[in-house]
């Protein structure tokens, strides 16, 4: 096992959280600060297994942007989280993913191939090459299919996935399968409609049941090709229907054919509102080419990761740091359409306030003391929008508990009963970041906001008001060291931060200057 000292030295070199501007200059005797952090991220890390002790890791390597609705990524057979680097049998690429421990997502699967349509295309897979030609970087993924000669490239925007598929000029038909009834958790319903214009496919998939819960959601899609297809057909899990344009079955799917040797671009948008919402999301992205979308995604990731600038000489440590930081920005995910609409727990369509975003897919496993604080520090606007309101409106075990007229909740969250109480720690941090962020002194562009990590501090929060907490499953006051059903008056919470801006929250009567509290624990050897 590698020593923790080199990585600790790298972390100790963290200079600050950069709101904007160029990284600070390094002294002549110090290593230079990282300018392009995306060069130190490998999205294939964590996509295999960690041996008998760790087991499956379940990270996904595909294309997405920070907090995006789409996670456009490859899938392999018999994998409940989508992708396993030790498995070469690929079912193609799908639009939604999460690094989870139960079957989930994998919605709207597509497979480029030259293999002729067989009697059971809903079970087809092709071998992919896990070699040096498989590359995963922020916002871009590429892999090739050795048996068919197809090369696939993926990139993404917030609500769309853009794929470029290069077929060999060997006389074999360039086929493209689309499976609406292939979600990793199974489907309660699925539809597909092949457009009369010979360039579009639309449809939907209803799925859910995450970790045995009974919630479901429906995701809609709109797909557009860069050139017309020459033939088409559908299937329903029982038979293939050449020339058919629609299917409605839990195993629904379809195929389209292009001339041999085609280089095909496919743009796919999703929506949790309607097919029209997916079409509007697709239109909102404009007519940018694959390369333009890829460049924009890389720039977006570079800006996001550069919020923390580090210096170091060990390339392995830099890769570990920035790949880990990259993983913290994958969830939660945008849930509303480009026009602001999203579906609530009440089954009706709501519209998020202009300038804000509705988010979904929150992980609460031990994130209250690290991920929540980090996201609130680096991305206060996004963290604020992630706040679901007071405890009665939080979802537990993926079920709605109570809706609020102020903030009706969405229906697609991956929360668990038993960990909901932990949100009592970190969501107030996000709530305060939203309500009081303008009270903080914002540094000038290029200024360093945080001190070196060795002098990390604790920022005291305001006393909490008395609030009734319904004694529901997963919300036990005893688990927080409180009397059941109550949070004590005057109780104080504190979050560890790497330094602090000059910020006082209402009700904080502490005379200590901000950032001058109990020092953080020393870094481990």
UniProtKB/TrEMBL annotation:
GO terms for cellular component: cytosol. Residues 40-271 form the Glycosyl hydrolase family 92 N-terminal domain. It comes from Mycobacterium persicum. Residues 399-413 have a biased composition (Basic residues). Residues 384-396 have a biased composition (Polar residues). GO terms for biological process: glycoprotein catabolic process. Residues 277-385 form the Glycosyl hydrolase family domain. Residues 382-413, 453-480, 499-525 are annotated as: Disordered. GO terms for molecular function: carbohydrate binding; peptide-N4-(N-acetyl-beta-glucosaminyl)asparagine amidase activity. This is Glycosyl hydrolase family 92 N-terminal domain-containing protein. Residues 1-28 form the signal peptide. Residues 471-480 have a biased composition (Low complexity). PANTHER family: PEPTIDE N-GLYCANASE PNGASE -RELATED, SECRETED PROTEIN. Keywords: Signal.
